[in-house]
Amino acid sequence: MTKKLYIETLGCAMNVRDSEHIIAELKNKEDFDLTENIKEADLILINTCSVREKPVHKLFSEIGHFNKVKKPGAKIGVCGCTASHLGEEIIKKAPYVSFVLGARNVSKITDVLHKEKAVEVDIDYDESTYAFSDFRSSLYKAFINISIGCDKKCTFCIVPNTRGEEISIPPDLILKEVEKAAKSGAKEIFLLGQNVNNYGRRFSSYEGEINFTKLLRLVSEVDGVERIRFTSPHPLHMDDEFLEEFANNPKICKSMHMPLQSGSTKVLRDMKRGYTKEWFLNRASKLREMVPDVHISTDIIVGFPGESEKDFEETIEVVKEVKFEQIFSFKYSPRPLTPAKDFENQVPDEVASERLKILQDLHFEILDEISKRELGKVYKVYFEELKPGGFVAGRSDNNWIVKVKGSEELLGKFVDVKITKPGRLALEGETV
Ligand code: 5AD
Ligand code: SF4
Description:
Blueprint: E1 3-9, H1 13-30, E2 32-34, E3 43-48, H2 53-69, E4 75-80, H3 81-86, H4 89-93, E5 99-102, H5 109-112, E6 118-120, E7 141-145, E8 147-148, H6 159-163, E9 167-168, H7 171-183, E10 188-192, H8 212-220, E11 227-231, H9 240-248, E12 255-257, H10 265-271, H11 277-290, E13 295-302, H12 309-322, E14 326-331, H13 349-372, E15 378-387, E16 391-396, E17 401-405, E18 414-421, E19 426-431
Parallel strand pairs: 1-2, 1-3, 3-4, 4-5, 5-6, 7-10, 10-11, 12-13, 13-14, 17-19
Antiparallel strand pairs: 8-9, 15-16, 15-18, 16-17, 18-19
Helix pairs in contact: 8-9, 12-13
């Protein structure tokens, strides 16, 4: 009889794709079907994130809840980045957990399922050429991994310790995935990696020469691919060749994530980011010059150890200058296994909270100014999702979420929309 799988996914797009791989393996090899009702599940999985402390704390209350509501005999498994870094500690603290599966061990899901108290968290394990079964949660866009792991050693970040060293996936495997996705109707391809524009630096089996720019070109030549997005690029590797391909290839969506982290060169050095404030500003202004309609999003950490008022002011200066369309802002969170947790001059929480508020208020001001300019513009929107209240939502090429009144027949289509109501998070419009 078909068994039921309940899965909760936290964290980034890599985790979303890992969950799709887990679902695919369980559906195809173990006859599981998805359920949204945790009480009827035979297997309950949580795919965790460990980038900040809060979600890690929440993990134990969450799995405690799973244990209370699960049906007798149902198994609970903890997967993902927190699984990688806590390993067997999870089972010690929560003995009702059946197995722990790390972010770099996803392909072993069908093994751990049958081993009571299995802990598979080897961060040197190489899954870069593993042929996962097929499952995609969206009919319209396809997430495709181009690398695993991360070689950067940013001093705040736990990811190199949860996802291991960076290995690129061979281009022929990526292109096969792209072809398969496009054939099944996904017109948008979303390439994923911790450092996508470092693609091609190391393979475990492939011998050829290739970089991210070349990969983008190859993906854009696949029949049926109409849009390409990617995350995350690193500002350090935004060379001219890459920016030119980004600007001139019409299939590449004009929305770039440029994780700033800090606007102070001193803090950037302490973070080991590998670029300066000036380099970042130079890349951002070049991008705006080359692609006037581009959306630039960013990640910013406030309250990194040693961040002075003046350093924070520099971050504010960069935000005012670049006018990011989207900012993911965080208070620094000390993480195990990272150098920065032992740095002197940790910033008091009240100071970090105050800085976060200043940054977020500034961003809202900028957003109000930007979104007002959108009134009356016409965007080609790729519709992907039904929304409450009779709306259908999709994204413009430059990543605005756009909603119109409508129904299923818009899904999977590109339609021109005139913006009638600007907003901070989404724009409303009418099809034209
Ligand atoms: N504290 C706060 N934010 C962090 N990030 C990564 N590590 C930490 C940390 N220790 C943020 C970075 C990164 C995003 C995914 O999460 O801004 O780009
Ligand atoms: Fe993704 Fe990083 Fe969170 Fe892991 S720790 S899920 S890589 S954001």
